[in-house]
Amino acid sequence: MDAIQQHMLDTYRAARLGEPAPPPPGRHDRRTLRDLYRHWLTHPPTPRTARTARTGHSSPSGV
Question: Where are the annotated segments for Disordered (predicted)?
Answer without folding.
Answer: 1-63
